[in-house]
Amino acid sequence: MEELFAPESLLAFTRAIFQRMGYAYDAALLAAEVLLKADLRGIDSHGLARLPGYIRLWEAGRIRVDAHPQVVHETPSTALVDGHQGLGLLVAPFAMRIAMRKAQEVGSGWVAVKNSNHFGIAGYHAMMALEAEMIGIALTNASPLVAPTFSVERMLGTNPIAVAIPAGDEPPVVIDMATAAAANGKLEILQRKGLEAPEGWIQDAMGRSTSNPFALQEGGALLPLGSRVETSSHKGYCLAALVDLLSGVLPGAGFGPWVPPFVHFLPLPQDAPEGAMGIGHFFGALRVDAFRPTDAFKQHMDRWIRRFRAARPIDSQQPVKIPGDPEREAEMQRQREGIPLHHRVVKALRELSDRFAVPFPEPLSLKHGE
Amino acid sequence: MEELFAPESLLAFTRAIFQRMGYAYDAALLAAEVLLKADLRGIDSHGLARLPGYIRLWEAGRIRVDAHPQVVHETPSTALVDGHQGLGLLVAPFAMRIAMRKAQEVGSGWVAVKNSNHFGIAGYHAMMALEAEMIGIALTNASPLVAPTFSVERMLGTNPIAVAIPAGDEPPVVIDMATAAAANGKLEILQRKGLEAPEGWIQDAMGRSTSNPFALQEGGALLPLGSRVETSSHKGYCLAALVDLLSGVLPGAGFGPWVPPFVHFLPLPQDAPEGAMGIGHFFGALRVDAFRPTDAFKQHMDRWIRRFRAARPIDSQQPVKIPGDPEREAEMQRQREGIPLHHRVVKALRELSDRFAVPFPEPLSLKHGE
């Protein structure tokens, strides 16, 4: 069962919770906006469902409210940011702004971040670049859940790649994808519904393909994009490795199996390499007119989008989508009709409401199903 | 049947052929090196097997020997290069050098290229950055063979992503992957051997999965990485689209279904958008010490590589590989033992040898099989 809530009422609630943690109004509002953007865009696993998790990490001393992210090294087009264990939801926009400022100055900007925490949906940060007619890129590593090809061991996160590219009259192209065959959030949905997982998502503790959606809890692992050796799971492994190397190893953050877990009840990894701190991110901004006039580029973007939308479909009822279509459609619908929250999420948020004495908003209506 | 040839003898032959086309010694040698690197690294589909194709494109007026690639726009960290229909094997190293020079100056360099031709293996160009302690990136679009998710239409090339990352005592990590479930070269091998294609590589003209390795010639299409909707073929589609947008749309090259075919006998695409010229590439170079000291970075790279090599295997006979291992092993073996060429490739090269009066090298020995 789900309940529908007005986006602005959830934003105010979340902002107030972050204020209770000690953030000033503006910072609390930004963190709430980043988190809620996931719910708006239909990526329910990364939104308010995670607010209690952030609180627990803060209480465990793994997120520091008094931390201010800091540029510790830079060149005209690059920077290294130390997040000082701050909230990833705030560290990431700080770093992306630096990338955009550098792009304004010298054509492109690239910022690697160490010692951060979970930053919400990668797409939020990549899309920041759109307002400045830039191409935006956001990568992050994450707790290890994915096995490399030929291994039973969980060595890589679902390490997302997000890229936002502005268009003209058409909406921007926004790619925001985990490099696993399926993100963990999708498994959680199957678990709640009591459904089996499709072939190709997970393997069991012996490395055998399984449809058991609980296999991860029983020593199994998520599979890289490509799923099987014959269908090039090594490519998904390569992509997840690339994200880990750029966002983890390059800045000096945790990497591979040493990325700190998002949940407070798992211990920090043992034997982590010296000087590998926290979760790492990597951001890029490319000014379109650092290559060619923005108008000419946008005309071709619109042409690309229209041509792909018109690609001959297999089934006339299912036209070809443009990257970003599903999330944009979810956002339009949820802005209009409200954000559905699963009753377990509502229950957890009501507990936060009680503990922090922040009133929880009234639902718009009940939505049955799921 | 295959024959083995000494790499240096094939290099001299290929260099001499490029000289006969009109290239000066140095340019001819570089083009030959780039092309032969594919054979050395075991990517046989992109090496000397394609030399006759380049010749035919030159004869058809689609590759211009007198063209000199040119920077037509730049900022401190970016440039747009017009390849003027030159040989991609030469345009690409020219552009990558500019990216590296900019990285030397301002931390990173990003070069988009329009109006080029096929550039050999993407990995060659990405790996150029390694000599300068940089991370190298190379992307290119290519003739449309891949259908977007939900479509029967061939709209995208196998659009590769190559990234090379330096390490310390360990060999560098080198990713060089097509964004399709399987590249066309793999299908050609099955066709020669009369074998069926694995599930997940191709679809027929109706968009149904098929194991017919000739389905492409019968109106079918290659599938994006991910293969099926349930195993996230939309992510492979997103990656191929990303490569097309950065290397095609950003510079003003051909894009999507309008990328010129590599084969001379197919006509240039009709209704190509105005100002969308030739094949496009995108190159990047990131100086490691623009983020943090190279030594500290390399220590973590070595640690990453060793930890992943030691990841618990499913089968103790098949340890986990590091991206770039298979190609590096092929290169070591082929430098030592020679490069195997399929008898059809040898036949085509002997024809070039006759036509251009360039002696074809003697084989080292006969290798049976394939």
Features:
17% strand; homodimer; 3-stranded antiparallel sheet; 370 residues; 7-stranded mixed sheet; alpha+beta; globular; 10 helices; 2 domains; Hypothetical Oxidoreductase Yiak, Chain: A, domain 1; Ribosomal Protein S8, Chain: A, domain 1
Report what the structure shows:
The structure is a homodimer of 370-residue chains. With 370 residues, chain A is an alpha+beta fold. The first copy, chain A, has two domains: 1-59 and 338-370, Malate/L-lactate/L-sulpholactate dehydrogenase, four-helix barrel (Hypothetical Oxidoreductase Yiak, Chain: A, domain 1); 70-181 and 224-290, Malate/L-lactate/L-sulpholactate dehydrogenase, NADPH binding domain (Ribosomal Protein S8, Chain: A, domain 1), CATH 3.30.1370.60. Chain A contains ten helices and 13 strands. Chain A has a seven-stranded mixed beta sheet with strand order 2-3-4-11-5-6-7. In chain A, strands 12-1-13 form a three-stranded antiparallel beta sheet. In chain A, strands 9-8-10 form a three-stranded antiparallel beta sheet, with no helix packed on it. In chain A, a hairpin with a 5-residue loop joins strand 8 and strand 9. At the A-B interface, strand 2, strand 3, strand 4, strand 7 and helix 7 of A face strand 2, strand 3, strand 4, strand 7 and helix 7 of B.
